[in-house]
Design brief:
- The protein is α+β, with helices and mostly antiparallel strands and 121 residues long.
- The chain has two domains: 34 residues, no CATH class; 74 residues, no CATH class.
- 26% of the residues lie in helices and 16% in strands.
- Helix 1 links the parallel strand 1 and strand 2.
- It is extended.
- The N and C termini lie far apart (43 Å).
């Protein structure tokens, strides 16, 4: 990266999901002292897969030095089910192959640990 400015700032980030640690990474790289706070008592298991698609995502993951780490735990995508309060399926969105974007040179896809149907209410 060209001429990184030194910000010499202290930053508090609320949320340790995906965006909080990613923002902390870049702010620390530019000289900020970062603290992340999270409401949850512990990391949560499971969840929905996070997709990284296209040249921009691939470039960011490469610049962070984590492309291989992010791609390693790729999940097998499953259909997305939209359910009602009684857990009846209202609609289904078919899954696409997990490596379709990677094979096309676009980046890692389906990189997370969640395998259960998503709930939309």
């Amino acid at each position: 990266m060209p001429n990184k400015p030194t910000l010499n700032k202290r930053v508090l980030i609320s949320g340790a999901s995906v965006a909080g640690p990613a923002l902390a990474y870049w702010l620390e790289r530019y000289g900020c002292a970062v603290t992340i706070v999270e409401h949850a008592d512990a990391l949560r298991g499971g969840g929905q897969a996070v997709d990284f698609k296209g040249e921009v995502h691939r470039t960011v993951l490469e610049r962070m030095g984590i492309l291989d780490e992010v791609h390693r735990p790729s999940t097998t995508p499953t259909d997305l089910h939209i359910i009602d309060e009684n857990e009846r399926v209202l609609a289904t969105m078919p899954a696409t192959p997990a490596d379709s974007w990677l094979r096309a040179g676009g980046g890692a896809s389906g990189c997370a640990t969640g395998r259960s149907p998503s709930r939309c209410r």
